[in-house]
Amino acid sequence: MARVALMRVADAGDAVMGRLVAGFGAEGALDQVRRGKLDADFVAELAAMRGKPVDPGRRLTAWRGRLPFTDPVADLARGRKLGARLIVPGDVEWPTQLDDLGYERPLGLWLHGSADLRFACLRSVAIVGSRAATPYGMHVAAELAAALSEAGWTIVSGGAHGIDAAAHRGALAGVAETVGVLACGTDVAYPAGNHGLFEAMRARGLIVSECPPGVRPTRLRFLVRNRLIAALTRGTVVVEAAIRSGALNTACHAITLRRHLAAVPGPITSGNSIGCHRLIRRAEAVCVTTAREVIELMAAIGDDLSPEPRAPVLPRDRLDAESRSVLEAVPARSGAGPATIAVSAGVDLMTALSHLGALSAAGYVERTDLGWRLRRST
Amino acid sequence: MARVALMRVADAGDAVMGRLVAGFGAEGALDQVRRGKLDADFVAELAAMRGKPVDPGRRLTAWRGRLPFTDPVADLARGRKLGARLIVPGDVEWPTQLDDLGYERPLGLWLHGSADLRFACLRSVAIVGSRAATPYGMHVAAELAAALSEAGWTIVSGGAHGIDAAAHRGALAGVAETVGVLACGTDVAYPAGNHGLFEAMRARGLIVSECPPGVRPTRLRFLVRNRLIAALTRGTVVVEAAIRSGALNTACHAITLRRHLAAVPGPITSGNSIGCHRLIRRAEAVCVTTAREVIELMAAIGDDLSPEPRAPVLPRDRLDAESRSVLEAVPARSGAGPATIAVSAGVDLMTALSHLGALSAAGYVERTDLGWRLRRST
Questions:
Q1: Full DSSP string of A183-201
Q2: Which residues form the Smf/DprA SLOG domain (chains A, B) (predicted)?
Q3: Which residues of A fall within a CB distance of 8 Å from B274?
Q4: DSSP state of B367
Q5: Which one of A281, B91, B144, B359 is most buried, by most CB atoms within 10 A?
Q6: What contacts B122, CB < 8 A, 6 or more positions away?
């Protein structure tokens, strides 16, 4: 109950609150907020921290200001009525990989859907990218997601139009779960245009959020949400990202969290691939072009090695070097005598004749009144 | 004169002939071929070589077989009549970077055109790719070549349809020279469809070949020719390459010769980009997307650094974190009172009011009868 209250009191991803809860438990933290007085050692600890200084007094004021609007009993009742459930660290369904977020670990998660979050995310990949995606990006996201889902990998993404929606749609065409992590309450279902998609995801996967029911999305909540997408999964694939794209923020989280990071190349003439190419150029992301390459990267080492693309073997490749030079010396039209061919190929006459016989038997060359020439079909 | 003769006697890139010439000079080598007897120490040296064994007797037979068809005086006369000139190692115009080819260095080069080969190739880039290129590949090759040429870089490529032709056409739109290295005599101008292009290249650059006049192209000659494209330049850019493409052979030569290697990404749905993506994935090639990135790679270290693509700075970015949270808390429609906004933003009322005032002055928010709301235009 204290955690549910704190999910209203503190912003999502508030590391100061995370630190307070880690030190005093959720009830202890809530108690300090209610009393309007933070533990002195805790304040000293904050002051000793490197980096951007935190003003504990202002933070406390902000938290206290929200207390009057905090009603955990009502939140739980509202969530349940909507069909959602709340999980907190320690629950069986809690994905322990979120512990990598340290003090930014969410206080709790609202889940709405049929899948088990912890189980679904054991083998999961994030597919992220631009909202204003190109048809190429949408196609690639859907194809990758479908192939990964077919191979048993859960897809995790946001709930936006563009790459997010294409990835979920692709995943639904496969067999695995698909998980949408929203920057608003699970009941808000933003954007409204994806309402039907969210319905399908609840039936075959999950809608996840650290925001209490009814909370609207904001720019900051989107950025904070991205850390969850990166943390839940073994790695993130950026399908399309303009130079200013939230997907690159998720990519940053993946790097910080030491998750795998992959990017899909695209036409260099497309602004929506600039972010992907930059990640590849900086060697921050691995260049991936197929679902198998994604799996090879994300899977445990040696588990799933992707087959290298191979050139087809042509019949011509099976010829030895000498036969090949004789074949090269045979003209396509008119015809040439064996002596001319031998000189051109750099072999003696008997060698040329023996190779010509073999090449003729194999259908490469033919003898005409004018001499040897290539057979049309070769 | 002896070199001109040997260019008929031996195949292009014949390392055994290269070794013989290195040991005995061109005249000494030609003399041994004429006498039909190779130096005993030389034969012993060949026998002691690691790798694929060479049969000196057979090689000698092949060379001798071509002696009757060898007429250096006629070759020189024919070349001159066509307007071409011959250069050999030691000439002022000889590009000494070809020495990196070791015994596979060409015996001589036929040049046809107005440019100086050595000077043109001081700052040069090879642009190579598929003959059966896509419109995307042709566009990229032409744009890259034009921008590189505009920046004073000579373009080197083959003479094929597709990427080669697009690169030369792009280069002709710039200001620098363009050099076509052919796998046939400079007068053969294969393929015939590029005849007009070759004319333009002779006027603004060079047609280059190690084949004597009149020699027709063969598959082997194309592969051998590729080493010249790689060796002449500071590096090679692969624009499009299917999994089985001659461009990948040039890329191999670039790696072996420790030249730079770059590849242009493309749609993963295009078979013509598979070779490029494989080079990038294996970290054999650097992923490049602009001419500046190519120049950064190929130029002397620190000479030309490419600007990183940067996101545009939006006015919103200039706001401090506190202003931003207040702005985020202002609703887009209806309106909210300053107290509500303060709670949502996590600041006290006075702070909220002061930021709202500043945001209003900057045109982000406006005050209505219903409270504060975002201004439409933001």
A1: SS-TTT-SSGGGHHHHHHH
A2: 86-297
A3: 289, 309
A4: E
A5: B144
A6: B154
Query: Does the distance separating the beta carbons of B311 and A136 come in below 8 Å?
Result: no
- Phi, psi for residue A101 in degrees, rounded to 5: -80, -5
For testing the chain B interface, which of A69, A277, A310 should be mutated: the one with the most B CBs within 10 Å?
A: A277
DSSP string, B169-228: HHHHTSSS-EEEE-SS-TTT-SSGGGHHHHHHHHHHSEEEESSPTTPPP-HHHHHHHHHH
- For chain A, the structural domain boundaries read 2-70, 96-298, 315-374
**Which chain A residues contact residue B347 at CB under 8 A?**
58, 61-62
**3-class DSSP state of B39:** coil
CA B300 to chain centre: 16
Distance of alpha carbon A323 from alpha carbon A316, whole angstroms: 9
Q: Residues of A numbered 342-361 whose beta carbons fall under 8 angstroms of chain B's beta carbons: which are they?
A: 342-343, 345-348
Please state the length of chain B: 378
- Between positions 83 and 122 of A, the ones with CB within 8 A of B are none
Classify A96-298 by CATH class: alpha beta
Across the A:B interface, residue pairs with CB atoms under 8 Å apart total 124
Predicted confidence (pLDDT) per residue in B268-308, tens digit: 999 999 999 999 999 999 999 999 999 999 986 556 556 66
- B106 to each of A27, A70, B100, B249, how far by Cα in Å? 82, 83, 11, 18
Integer Cα distance of A127 and A129 in angstroms: 7
Which of these, A207, A213, A209, A201, lies nearest to A172 by C-alpha position? A201
CATH of domain A315-374: 1.10.10.10
Q: What are phi and psi of B287, to 5 degrees?
A: -75, 120
**CB atoms B266 and A264 under 8 Å:** no
State pLDDT tens for residues A218-267. 989 999 999 999 999 999 999 999 998 899 999 999 999 999 999 999 99
pLDDT at position A378 is 43
Instruction: Flag if A290 and B273 touch (Cβ within 8 Å).
Output: no
Question: Tokens for B55?
Answer: 């049969």
Interface contact A69-B343, CB threshold 8 A: yes
C-alpha–C-alpha distance, residues B149 and B160, integer Å: 19
Q: What is the DSSP letter of A93?
A: T
Q: How many helices (H) and strands (E) does chain A have?
A: 16, 11
* pLDDT per position as a tens digit, A294-308: 999 998 655 656 666
* 3-class secondary-structure state, position B262: strand
Neighbours of A25 (CB within 10 A): 13
Whole-complex ipTM: 0.79
